[in-house]
Design goal:
It holds the Pfam family Forkhead. The protein contains 26 helices and four strands. The chain is mostly helical. The radius of gyration is 35 Å and the shape is rod-shaped. The structure holds a DNA duplex.
Length: about 625
Amino acid sequence: MSPVELLHFQQQQALQVARQFLLQQATGLTSPSSNENKQPAVQVPVSVAMMSPQMITPQQMQQILSPPQLQALLQQQQAIMLQQLQEYYKKQQEQLHLQLLTQQQAGKQQAKEQPLGNKQLAFQQQLLQMQQLQQQHLLNLQRQGLVSLQPGQGTVPLQTLPQAVCPSDLQQLWKEVTATQPVEDSIKQEGLDLSTNTSNSTSFSAAKVSPPISHHPLPNGQNAMLTQRRDSSSHEETPGSHPLYGHGECKWPGCETLCEDLGQFVKHLNTEHALDDRSTAQCRVQMQVVQQLEIQLAKESERLQAMMAHLHMRPSEPKPFSQPLNLVSSATLSKSTSDTFPDGLPHPPTSATAPITPLRQGPSVISSSTLHNVGPIRRRNSDKFCTPISSELAQNHEFYKNADVRPPFTYASLIRQAILETPDRQLTLNEIYNWFTRMFAYFRRNTATWKNAVRHNLSLHKCFVRVENVKGAVWTVDELEYQKRRPPKMTGSPTLVKNMISGLSYGALNASYQAALAESNFPLLNSPTMINTSSTSGMLHVGHDDVSSTVEQVNSNGSNSPRLSPQQYSHQVHVKEEPTETEDDSRPVSLMATTNQNVTIPDDRDMEEELPVEDLS
DNA sequence: TTGAGATTAAACAAGC
DNA sequence: GGCTTGTTTAATCTCA
C-alpha cells in the first residue's frame, strides 16, 4: 500500500469514526429515556470506544510512513473529524432553534396559563445539552489527542481554555456549584439565558489549569506521535482553529457570539466565559450530560455484548449449544463471554440437540481461529501438548455430549480417557464404543468409520493392551507406553514449556482465556482420572503408575529436552524389557503381534510374570 | 520440503 | 453367512 493509498484509507477511517460518533450522539440526544436513566456512570474509555476495529496500528503506520507523513496524516484526520462534528452540531443547533421558535410561538398562546411552557423549557434544556455535548465531545477528543490545538494556537493563552480544567478542578467547581446553586436553578438559568452573555470578567487562574492536553496515552501508542505532532510547525490547519471556535462564532454552549478571528475569540472567551457561577453551573450540567452519555454508552455496550453473545452462542437457534473452552476466539468475545457468565466460562448447553452439522468436520472445529465448525481442519491439540483431556471433557462434557462437534482429541487419547474413567481401568471394545457414543454426539453417526478407527488405534498403539479375562477381552492402557508414544515436542521452547507448566497448553486457547482457566484446570490435573493406579493397566508398573501419571505433568513441567523426564528415564531403565523395535526385529512376528501375544494371556498374574521374562531375553 | 503423527479406508482373519 | 473383533496396510492430511 502506497503512502497515498494509506492516506486515503486513513481519511476514510477518520470519517467513519466521526460518523459513528455522530450517530451515537444523535441517538443519545433523541432518546428520551436516556435522560431518565439514573444509573451510576460507567467509565468507558472513549478512546477505546472511538477506536475503529479496522484501524491500522500506529506501529504499522510508522513502518509505512515517515514521521512527517504521519503528522500530516493525523492532522488531516483530526481536521476532518472536527469539521464534521462542527457541521453536525451546527445543524443540530439550527434544528433545535427552529423547534424552539415553533414552540415559543405555540407557547405564546398558552402564556397566560404558563409563563414558561414546559415544552419550551425542555427544548431549551435539550439545546443546552446538545451544545454542551458538543463541547464535551471536543474535550474528549482533545484529551485523547484526537483533536489538538492547532499549530497556530501556540499563542493562545491555554490557561483560559475550558478544556484545560482537570478533573480535580472540576470537582472543586462541582463543590462550589453545589454549595451555592441548586441544580434546577442552574439549569433553569441556562435554559432561560442561552443567548445572553452576562458573565463577569473573572478569568481562570493559572493555578486551576492543567496542561491543555492531558497525557492519557492512547492504547495504540499514538500519544508519542501526537505529542510530536504538536511540536511540529506544520501547516495545513488554519491558525484560527479552536474546539470552541468555529464558523466565526463562539461555540460555548449558548453563546454563538461572532468573533472575527481567533484572537478575538480568545479575548471573548476570557471575558465572557470565565470562572463564575454560570460557568460552573454549565460545567455541572455538562457533567450530567457526560454521565448520561456514559450510561448510554454502557447500555449500548451491553447491547453489543448481547448481540455478540447471540450471534456466537446462537441461543435461539434450533440447535443451541455452548462453546467449549477453546471456542473463544477473540479477546472481545472472551470479554463478552465473561461478562455474560460470571464464572468466566461458557455455560454448558441446557438442552440436548441434534447434530449441528451433518457434515464431516475436521477435528479442530474448535480452534481459536475458527469459531464456527467449518472446514476439515485437523488439530489434536490434546496430544500435542498433553492437554488435560479429563479437565477439558469435564468442563465441556455437556457440550460434546449434545453438540455434533468432533472433539479435538485423538482417538488414542479418547480411548485412553474412556479406559481411565472406569474404576478398574479396563474396557471391552464395545464398552469403548458406548463411551464414545455416550460422551460425544459426534460419534453417534458414521459408526463404521470411527469404530474402525478405534479398533485401528487399539491395535496400532502399544499403549493399548489387550487383556483377556473371564469376561472376555478387555483393553487397558499402558501409561508408560502412552507417554513414550509421544515424546514432548516442545524441545527447548521456553514458551511451550511455560505453557506446559501451567497445564493450559490448549494451543488454540487465547491467552486471556488460558488465564481464566488457570484455576479451574489445576485441580483437575490432579483428578483421579489423571492418576493411574490400575493394577491391570499397570502390569509391571504397579507402584509406578502414580509416577507415570506424574510424568504427564512433570513432563509438562520442565523438561526442555525431548528425552524422558527423570521419572520416565528411570522407568525406561526399569522396563527396558518392553518390546523394542530391535527386539521385535528379531522376532518372526510384528511388534504389535508380539506385544499383544505377550499380554494376551490368561490372567494378570501370568501377564505380570511374562514381561520380566521378556526382560531377560 | 520433509518427516512424523493422525485419520480414514480397506482387506483379511478368527471367533461366535 | 453374518457379525464382531482384531490386525495390518496404504493413502491422505496436517503440522512442525
